[in-house]
Design brief:
This protein is mostly helical. Helices cover 52% and strands 5% of the residues.
Length: 301
């Protein structure tokens, strides 16, 4: 057996931090480095592999929390937000919304949805949107490098919102990444179709309504009315860099769900990935609910 101690794991973690190794990759990397030729996986493998990775994860729990899966997004129940890590699927299998959102059972998920069919529908479509964004981006890997860079930056901003919203007290600073998801993904479609990225410079470069109109004209899609709804509700985010936008937590959560949809919609236009279309047929969870429903005022007695 190759000897190792927790001090070795501490030393390797500092080394990996300096090398820029992602947190979720470090336990496995440590096992390969400590065991060398004795590193063996599978049947008849070295049990020290599991011991090292387990010890690493116990010492640094964030290594598990940072695993990106196939993609990171969010689902919401009113203004309660749940970070969703899309599982990596091998082969063919059916994943239910409650599984994808990290619940132990359909009953637990339904309780979180307040046993409300509208909230359950929104949660289901949130999963579909994250699926289409993540796997659509994967399908587009051989396309325009500049467009892919924009979508990857949109993905990074969506991850920031998903990591922040579940527990944050103040939502003012989350508006920036939320708006960036919309801007970068809309620009991604246009660049995919040949628009020069440099042409976005100037005052219209942050005009999300103009960008959405250009996308709808270039690649019309059934999602266009919803994209227009989302963009119309986004605040002027250049201003929101310097002063609060004055939005409630619920309003910001709805915007986050809307831009996740918008990002997915941009990739549904240029790839064959469209799980949302499957959900939109038949009964519940269809139809997709509006992101900004009109609040019903209480009637006078």
């Amino acid at each position: 057996m190759t000897p190792w101690t927790k001090n070795d794991l501490q030393r390797l973690d500092v080394k990996y931090a300096n090398e820029g190794v992602h947190l979720h990759q470090r336990p496995f990397r440590a096992a390969t480095e400590l065991l060398g030729s004795a590193f063996v996986l599978g049947v008849g493998g070295n049990p020290e592999v599991q011991k090292i990775t387990a010890a690493y994860e116990a010492m640094f729990p964030e290594t598990n929390a940072s695993w990106p899966g196939a993609g990171i997004g969010l689902a919401a129940s009113v203004d309660r937000v749940r970070k969703v890590t899309l599982p990596v699927v091998f082969g063919t299998c059916a994943i239910q919304a409650w599984q994808a959102t990290g619940f132990e059972s359909a009953e637990e998920w339904w309780d979180w949805c307040r046993k409300d069919h509208d909230i359950g529908s929104q949660s289901s479509f949130a999963f579909a949107d994250l699926h289409d964004f993540a796997y659509g981006l994967n399908e587009a890997q051989e396309g325009s490098a500049e467009a892919l860079t924009l979508w990857r930056m949109a993905r990074s901003n969506l991850e920031d919102a998903a990591n922040t919203l579940p527990t944050t007290f103040s939502v003012d600073s989350v508006i920036q990444p939320i708006c960036m998801v919309a801007e970068l993904s809309l620009k991604g479609v246009l660049v995919w179709d040949g628009t020069d990225p440099k042409s976005f410079k100037g005052k219209d470069g942050h005009n999300l309504k103009l960008l959405a109109d250009r996308v709808a004209t270039a690649r019309p899609h059934r999602d266009d009315p919803f994209v227009a709804e989302v963009v119309a509700n986004l605040p002027p985010y250049v201003d929101s860099r310097y002063k609060p936008a004055g939005l409630t937590r619920l309003a910001v959560v709805r915007l986050a769900m809307g831009v996740q949809f918008t990002a997915a919609s941009t990739l549904r236009r240029i790839t064959s990935t469209d799980f949302a279309a499957e959900m939109e047929t038949g009964g519940w969870p269809a139809p997709r609910r509006p992101f900004f429903p009109v609040e019903r005022k209480p009637q006078a007695v």
